[in-house]
Amino acid sequence: MRKNASIALSLSRPALSGRWTAGFVLLAFVSLAFPLNAQDKSFLWRVKSAKGTIYLLGSIHYLKRENYPLKKSIQEAFENSRTLVLEIDPQRDTRERAQQVMLEKALYRDGTSLQQNISPQTYQLAEQRARELGIDLLQMGQLKPWFVGLSLVSVKLQKMGFDPNLGLDLFLADRAKKGGKAIRGLETLDFQIGLLDQFSPAEQDSMLRQTLNELDMLDKGLEQIVQAWNSGDGRALEQLLLASMKDYPEIYEKIVVDRNRRWLADLVKMLEQGDKTLVVVGAAHLVGKNGLVELLQQRGYTVEQL
């Protein structure tokens, strides 16, 4: 399930759903640059400059009620921050708008159908997987492969008991709103959806087929990912997610690496302006040689896992 669990850790929940979940578990965790004591850690880092402090928290966008309450370190980082920064500002890009924009992008406008745009083998497998989930694939006949993949994974996750409403980013956004904290986004819903829609027909076919092949492994694999996330065990996440990304370097570059580079400038500005901010992004963005933790260390900032 490696590939399908990681877009869930990489893109924000509204962009991948608006009631749809993170699909293709793509984007991977790479090795950490420092040792971890997983039992004592959260997936949370404190970054300090001479002028300010920010917290970086890796998010999983679908969780269960049993994953709450959050660890004390996360709660304290939230309380100590004046601003909450998410991938997308849920006050601007609401669930309703997410549904509308996603469907506008996901529908074929050229008169063709899903069956005409993917291989017969992929379509046959999609029919089988949809039937196993109680879905008639014909009802999705005008939708593009990336959206079909997201939809099937969403249904699968919810059948497993994972709830988008309990995702970490939405949970903290709700608390911030009630507490009067400022909330803003690093990018827009339109941008995130565009990331998925930009892939070529061949790439979309490949991603959908991989998603379909790995649906059965979600049962065990996602539980392992959540356990590793909860204990701050980056090395376990590396083992769970890295292998499949070796076959998808261009997708990894577009979905994770390019966005990390853009976000880095924002994080540096927060630090230099003396902000006290909690930044919550998909967990895949925080680790590895291209991760935000490593990039900030390279800039000379003090970075500590909490």
List the helices and strands and how they pair.
Blueprint: H1 2-10, H2 13-16, E1 44-48, E2 53-59, H3 72-79, E3 83-86, H4 95-106, H5 114-117, H6 120-132, H7 145-159, H8 168-179, E4 182-185, H9 189-197, H10 201-214, H11 218-230, H12 234-245, H13 249-272, E5 276-282, H14 292-298, E6 302-305
Parallel strand pairs: 2-5, 3-4, 3-5
Antiparallel strand pairs: 1-2, 1-6
Neighbour order of strands in the largest sheet: 4-3-5-2-1-6
What's the story with the biggest beta sheet?
A: 6 strands, mixed
Domain module tally: 1
Portion of residues in beta strands equals 5-15%
* CA gyration radius, whole angstroms: 19 Å
- Note the gap between the termini: 28 Å
Uncertain runs? 1-9, 13-39
Q: Any idea what the shape is?
A: globular
In terms of structural class, how would the helical and strand content be classed? Answer: alpha/beta
Order of helices and strands: HHEEHEHHHHHEHHHHHEHE
- Regarding quaternary structure, what we see is single chain
Q: Percentage of helical residues?
A: 40-55%
Number of helices: 14
Mean pLDDT figure:
83
In total, how many beta strands?
6
Task: Quickly list its features.
306 residues; disordered N terminus; 14 helices
Question: Could you explain the architecture of this structure?
Answer:
- This protein has one domain.
- Helix 4 packs parallel to helix 9 and helix 11 packs across helix 12.
- A hairpin with a 4-residue loop joins strand 1 and strand 2.
- The chain is globular, with a radius of gyration of 19 Å.
- It is of the alpha/beta class and 306 residues long.
- Helix content is 51%, strand content 10%.
- The N terminus is likely disordered.
- The longest helix is centred in the last third of the chain and has 24 residues.
